Structures are given as structure tokens and as C-alpha cells.
Automatic annotation (TrEMBL):
Residues 36-46 have a biased composition (Basic and acidic residues). Gene3D superfamilies: 1.50.10.10. SUPFAM superfamilies: Six-hairpin glycosidases. The keyword Transcription regulation does not apply. Residues 1-50, 80-105 are annotated as: Disordered. The keyword Transport does not apply. It comes from Aegilops tauschii subsp. strangulata. This is cellulase.
Length: 471
């Protein structure tokens, strides 16, 4: 939490910051272990909120840890909680104080944030720089060589040595979002530098994987060969084939996710490294155009991917990427794309779903709610109408998460943990927690007192308490 500040009343949240505050953070001493994933549970999650994901959820440890990073960063700073606890009121409560600067560190969350960020250091491929992990060394130095590219960087997906660009890019997008919204929190916890380092390591890989406008490399390695051999990445010897998408072999889902990641990252590095930021943004714009022009699902193009990351569509990634490009550029064309041109057909307004590597709609709804909360004079009536639909659906997502809401999802354990799938069961609860705290902070900053869920009112504190319960 940020500390409460009743002395200042902010009528609007400033644009997403272009760069976080400077920090200098020491290495974290704890070392998380890596585990090889087991067999995939192919059952689709139930519950009132819809789920896009079908088939195997894939090797998702990196993406899961990212969600923990994002959520821990939000709750790591706790000077005092704003009032208004309890939920399900019959009348709207009064607005709570606008959040102030970071307060005191809650070491429980600060330590979790440090360990989670250290995991990205553990997962690094390539020639390591300032390596703080004593049992890790250089690896995958020849990745991309067959295409005369340097694809040595990036993150290994889990206990294996695969580089799957789809979840890696999603990791970068949400990590960048976390830094943009909560960079000051990370600074207070002395964890901003590791976050920026991890983000740049992935961003470097994404740039290298996009050698021309309509070519993008989406995978390094053969998962069948890789998973047949349990070994250290420093000593692996199997072939590392490359998989690319292009106009004849499309993959709009992965290209658009990478565009979202690079657009968000361009904002993070805007002030500290303008040249790098500009390069990221140019790649993001070209990848989005490629994804939107040559439409198709990568796992349809390459059926072998269905065993690992079986994407169920690409329209959510197109909306997600365009939303981030709007924030990064201010270009109304991107806002019109998500609201007027494609909102009705792509956004599935009114139907809340679960935020994950496969379904970006809930994240898009929360991100565009930001625009609706704080507004812009340049937004047309038609665009505002679309933004309201995104915000209404975002609130339906929030209402589905709150346990005392009339529309609360029944997909929970007896202890209250959101439970959608037996495979990688923590991802949905942690992802939901991140969206909940972000939305609650938008409410606090805009002096929005409550969300209404079928006649009951819930304050930002109620929403934050749900997030803490998941962590």
C-alpha cells in the first residue's frame, strides 16, 4: 500500500510515467529452486467467469513468478491501510483518501518481491553480466546462429531450456506495467534495478527476434528433445532449431503480444535511454501491423505448439497491443482501433474472463479503464462509449473476484484461493490479485468510492483485501 494522503486531492492520475525513479538495489541472497513441469492437466476450469484456455497450460513458471512480482510490488509498502474495510454494503461508502508516497516496508512482501525477481536472474540465457547466481553460467550462446542472429538472451521457460516467445513476452508486458505503475514502490523496497534488468534482458531478445518487418522468431529449441534430457543449460548439446512466423505462416497472437511488451517497455526506458526506447517502439508498431495484417494463430500454423502453449485466439492480443501502443504514443488511431473499429467484435464486452498468458482481455479492460477514469479532451464520444464498455466489463471482473459479491465466482478452494485449473493452479489467483490492486488504486486516485455489484457496494479496500488474500 501507499500511505494515505488526505492533504492533497488529485483529480486525475498523470500519464503512465516514462521512466521509474533511479535506485540501487543489492543482490537478494535467497535462491529459489527450479522444477521440471509434470504432466499437463487438460481439464478446463469451471466457474461463473469464462475461461478461454483449453488444452495444456504449458510450462508457466516464469509467467507465474512474474504475477507474484507484480502483486508483491503493490502490497510491499504498507505505512497504514486506508479505512473502509468490510464488504457488501447496501449504500455507497465515502471516498477514501488519495494514495500518497510509499510508506514503510512490510518485509514479508518485500522479501517475496526480492525472491521473485531473483528468479528471473536464475532463468537467464546467454552471456551473463554481473551474475549474482553462483551456480549459473553462460549458456545458449549459439542460439540464432543458423539464421545469423543473436538470440542468446531471453529467459528459459521453466526447468527446461526452451525459449517460448509467447509467455516470455507476456512476462515482459506485465513486468513493464508493474514498473510503470509501481516503480516508486519497487524503489522503496530496493528492487527496482533487478526488475529493470530482467525487463531489458527480455526486451533485447524480442528486438533480436524481429530481424525484419514481417518475420518474428517465436521459439528457440525443440521441446520434445529438450524435455527428454534433464541437464544444466550450461552443458546442453542438443540442436536448437528456430521457429518463425511470417506472412505465409502467421501468428498474430504472439506477434501482438510481443508488440504489447515492447510498447510497454519503451515507456519504462523512455527517459533513461531514449534511443533504446525509440527502437522498442518502432519494433512494437511494426509487429502490430504485421499481426493485424496477416492474421492467424501460431498454434494453428505450427500444430506442435498446441502441446505446450495452445493459444485459443488472437483478437485479445490485438486489443492488448493496440491499448499499449495508445499509451506509448498517444496516437488516437490505436484508441479508435480498440473502441470504435474492433471493440464490439473483439472485446466480448460484458463477459468477464480470467487474465492469463492466453487471455489478455481482462488486462485490456483494466488498462483501458485507466483512460476512462482519468479521461482526455481528445477522446471522441464514440471512443468514450467504447471505453465505458471496457470499464463496465472490468468491474464485472472485479465483482466476480470479491467473495462477498452476489456475482462471486465459485471457483475457489475452501480457504478462498481462486482455483481454475489443476495445472499451474496459482496463476489465475495471482493474476487476478494484480488486476484487483491496480483497479483499486485507480479508484483511490480518482476518488471513486466503490464498485457496485448487483446492488452491493465494495470499496478499494475491499478489493485490495481480496488481492492480499490471494498472495
Amino acid at each position: 500500500n501507499r500511505s494515505s494522503s488526505s492533504g492533497k486531492r488529485a483529480s486525475s492520475l498523470p500519464p503512465l510515467p516514462r521512466t521509474p525513479p533511479e535506485s540501487s538495489s543489492p543482490a537478494v541472497s535467497l535462491s529459489p529452486t527450479r522444477a521440471r513441469a509434470g504432466e499437463c492437466d487438460r481439464r478446463e476450469g469451471g466457474g461463473e467467469m469464462g475461461s478461454k484456455t483449453k488444452g495444456c497450460c504449458g510450462w508457466l513458471i516464469v509467467a507465474l513468478v512474474l504475477a507474484l512480482v507484480a502483486t508483491a510490488a503493490v502490497v510491499a509498502i504498507m505505512k497504514r491501510k486506508p479505512g473502509g474495510g468490510g464488504g457488501g454494503r447496501s449504500r455507497p461508502p465515502k471516498p477514501l483518501p488519495v494514495p500518497g508516497p510509499p510508506g514503510d516496508i512490510d518485509s514479508k512482501y518485500g522479501d517475496a518481491l526480492g525472491v521473485a525477481l531473483q528468479f528471473f536472474q536464475v532463468q537467464k540465457a546467454g552471456k551473463l553480466v554481473d551474475n549474482q547466481i553462483p551456480w549459473r553460467g553462460d549458456s545458449a550462446l549459439n542460439d540464432g546462429k543458423e539464421a545469423k542472429l543473436d538470440l542468446s538472451k531471453g529467459l528459459y521457460d521453466a526447468g527446461d531450456h526452451m525459449k517460448f516467445t509467447f509467455p516470455m513476452a507476456f512476462t515482459a508486458t506485465v513486468l513493464a506495467w508493474s514498473v510503470l505503475e509501481y516503480g516508486d514502490q519497487m524503489t522503496a523496497a530496493k528492487q527496482l534495478d533487478p526488475a529493470l534488468d530482467a525487463l531489458r534482458w527480455v526486451s533485447d531478445f524480442l528486438i533480436a527476434a524481429h530481424p525484419s518487418e514481417n518475420v518474428f522468431y517465436i521459439q528457440v529449441g525443440d521441446p520434445d528433445l529438450d524435455h527428454d534430457c534433464w541437464q544444466r543449460p550450461e552443458t546442453m548439446t542438443e540442436k536448437r532449431p528456430l521457429t518463425q512466423i511470417n506472412p505465409k505462416n502467421p501468428g498474430s497472437d504472439i506477434a501482438a503480444e510481443a508488440a504489447a511488451a515492447m510498447a510497454a517497455a519503451s515507456m519504462v526506458f523512455k527517459s533513461s535511454d531514449t534511443t533504446y526506447s525509440d527502437s522498442l517502439l518502432q519494433h512494437a508498431q511494426k509487429l502490430f501491423t504485421f499481426a493485424d495484417t496477416y492474421k492467424g494463430i501460431a498454434s494453428d500454423t505450427y500444430p506442435k505448439l498446441q502441446k505446450y502453449y495452445n493459444s485459443t485466439g488472437y483478437v485479445d492480443e490485438l486489443l492488448w497491443a493496440a491499448s499499449w501502443l495508445y499509451h506509448a504514443t498517444g496516437d488516437q488511431t490505436y484508441l479508435s482501433y480498440v473502441t470504435v473499429q474492433n471493440g464490439k467484435d473483439y472485446a466480448d464486452w460484458g463477459r468477464p474472463t480470467w487474465f492469463s498468458w492466453d487471455d489478455k482481455l481482462p488486462g485490456t479492460q483494466i488498462l483501458l479503464s485507466r483512460v476512462n477514469f482519468f479521461g482526455s479532451k481528445e477522446i471522441s464520444n464514440a471512443e468514450n462509449s467504447g471505453l465505458k464498455m471496457y470499464r463496465d466489463t472490468a468491474e464485472a471482473v472485479i465483482c466476480g473476484l470479491l467473495p462477498d459479491s452476489p456475482s462471486a465466482t465459485g471457483s475457489r478452494t475452501s480457504g478462498g484461493l481462486v482455483w481454475i485449473s489443476g495445472w499451474n493452479s496459482l496463476q489465475h489467483g495471482i493474476n487476478a490479485a494484480f488486476l484487483a490492486v491496480v483497479y483499486s488504486d485507480y479508484m483511490l486516485t480518482s476518488q471513486t468510492a466503490a464498485v457496485e455489484c448487483s446492488g452491493k457496494y465494495f470499496s478499494p479496500t475491499d478489493i485490495r483485501n481480496f488481492a492480499i488474500s490471494q498472495v
